[in-house]
Each structure stands twice: as C-alpha cells, then as structure tokens.
UniProtKB/TrEMBL annotation:
Keyword annotations from UniProtKB, A to Z: Leucine-rich repeat, Repeat
Residue numbers spanned by region Disordered: 261-290
Superkingdom of source: Eukaryota
Keyword Repeat: yes
Lineage: Eukaryota, Metazoa, Chordata, Craniata, Vertebrata
One family name in Pfam for this protein: LRR_8
Protein name as catalogued: Leucine-rich repeat-containing 10
InterPro entries recorded: Leu-rich_rpt, Leu-rich_rpt_typical-subtyp, LRR_dom_sf, LRR_domain-containing
SUPFAM superfamilies associated with the record: L domain-like (SSF52058)
PROSITE patterns, sorted: LRR
Keyword Repeat: yes
Organism of provenance: Pelobates cultripes
Length: 290
C-alpha cells in the first residue's frame, strides 16, 4: 500500500508532496550519506544541495530523468548512484562532481556518455551496465585512474583500441553483450586481473597465458569450441571448468573500499611514485581477489 501511495503522490508536483517522498532532510546527516533509493522520485529534492559536505548520495530505483544544476554544490561527493532510473542522457552537472570515485549509471536508457565525463579525473569505478550503448564510449579511455569498468548487458560488439591506455584498469565486466570475438585490445592489457565475457557470441578464445596479472576469467555461455589457455593459478569459469567464485556486489565493494581508506589513513604520506594510492583515490577491491 505504501508504494502505491508513493506512486500516486509522485505525479503531484507540489512541494509538500515531494517532501513526503524524500522524507525528513532538514539537517546534514552525521554519516554524510543520503539514501533516497526506491522513493518513486520524479524530480530531485533541491534541499539536498544544501548539504555541501555530503559524501554519498543514493538515488537508485526512482523515476528521475534529469538533475538540477544546483547539484554542482556537492563538490565533496565521492559516491553517486543513479542506477535504475529513466536517464536518456547523463546530466552535465554530474561531470562537475570532480571528487567522484564511484558512479552508478546502470539500468537506464543511455545511448552514449558526454565528452565532459573526462573531467571526472578521480573516478575509479564506473557502472554503465544495462543501457542502450552500441559502442563503448571512447571518452571512458580518458579516465586514467579507472580500476573497474562494468559495461555488460549493452549491445556492444567490440571494444575500442584506446582502452589499453587505461593502465590502472584491473577488472572489466562485459557479460551479456554482443561480442562475436574476444576483444583484441584485452590481449594488450597484461595488467588486468579480471575479465568477464560471459554470455556473448565468442566462438574461439585465444591464449591468455601472457596476461601475467590475470586472476579470473569468466567465459561461460559462449558458443566457443575451446577454453582459453591461462597461466597457472588463474581461475576459469565456463565450459571445462567447475569453478564458480562468488562475485562481490556493489555495496560490498564500497564497504571494502572504505576499509582500505581507513588503513591508508594510518600510513605515512605516499611518495610521488605511488601518488595514485592516496586517500583521494582509494583502491577498488573488485581487483583484489585472493
């Protein structure tokens, strides 16, 4: 009954009705997090923009298709969840949030990403799964600190050669796409830990033995006639393999990232050579498999 009422109220644009949907947001939350997931929201509650110290904002599973320019005030935001909404275009204001290191855009109606997303220089984890992307936007290849890319369940047939420029990338998830061959660019990325090409149309797998950092390759549900050859100790999930590791969910990832940040805060300041491992750029633990 509660969801039915919310669904009806969502169509009423009055401030009182919108306030009912978003709940009590009078003061800055102590944990610097606002979770407005599954609230039937059709427009973003502007009063959230008053919380300039906000670090996490969850707007998942609503009916949003736009965001106000006032969102730019949240310059301390590090995690933004916009998945399961109605975005056809990524609002430009998102690209102004330069401290973001995790961005959830999955399960929308995106056909592309704006060039301005290259401004998110601190971004380490990007979820764009289950959209309408026919190509992986090449602008992603300019996100030099990106460690995990979740782009599955899009009608993507190939990956751009520029992807190899992402030297920090450790995991790529392309399950449920339209790949007809194993992406050649991945063979030039020996720094990858995880490759997921489950549920595609790949008929032949080249040798992956030379990918020295590889820890896990998921290739199940492909019409392949062979299993990919891998180095000793690499786990394979697919035909001719019985291993099925349990993969981490996105909120588990965030918890582990926070633990990593806490550990780093107790350590001495990093040198210039390992500046990419500072608190502003916490490690994405989807790359840390035992």
């Amino acid at each position: 009954m509660g969801n039915t009422i919310r669904g009806i109220i969502a169509f009423i644009p009055s401030n009182s009705c919108q306030n009912y949907l978003s709940g009590d947001l009078k003061e800055m939350p102590i944990d610097k997090m606002v979770d407005l997931s599954s609230m039937q929201l059709r427009r973003f509650p502007l009063r959230v923009c008053a919380f300039k110290e906000l670090v996490k904002l969850y707007l998942s599973d609503n009916k949003l298709n736009s965001l106000p320019p006032e969102l730019e005030l949240l310059q301390n935001l590090q995690i933004l969840a916009l998945d399961f909404n109605n975005f056809k275009v990524l609002p430009q204001v998102v690209c102004s949030l330069k401290q973001l290191y995790i961005l959830y855009l999955g399960n929308n109606k995106l056909k592309d990403l704006p060039p301005e997303i290259r401004l998110l220089k601190n971004l380490q984890t990007l979820w764009i799964e289950s959209n309408y992307l026919t190509n992986l936007p090449t602008v992603i290849c300019e996100l030099t600190l990106l460690k995990a890319l979740h782009a599955g369940c899009n009608p993507i047939r190939c990956l751009p050669k520029e992807l190899k420029n992402l030297k920090e990338l450790r995991s790529i998830w392309m399950s449920g796409s339209l790949l007809s061959e194993f992406p050649p660019v991945l063979l030039e990325m020996p720094f990858l830990d995880i490759i997921d090409v489950d549920r595609n149309g790949i008929r032949f797998f080249p040798s992956l033995v030379h990918l020295t950092n590889l820890k896990l390759v998921i290739y199940d549900h492909n019409p392949c006639q062979n299993a990919p050859k891998v180095a000793k100790g690499v786990r394979r999930v697919g035909r001719w393999s019985e291993e099925t590791p349990e993969l981490m969910k996105k909120f588990d990832v965030e918890t582990e990232v926070e633990k990593a940040v806490e550990i780093k805060e107790t350590q001495p300041a990093p040198t210039k050579e390992n500046a990419n491992e500072t608190n502003e750029n916490p490690v994405d633990v989807t790359t840390e498999l035992n």
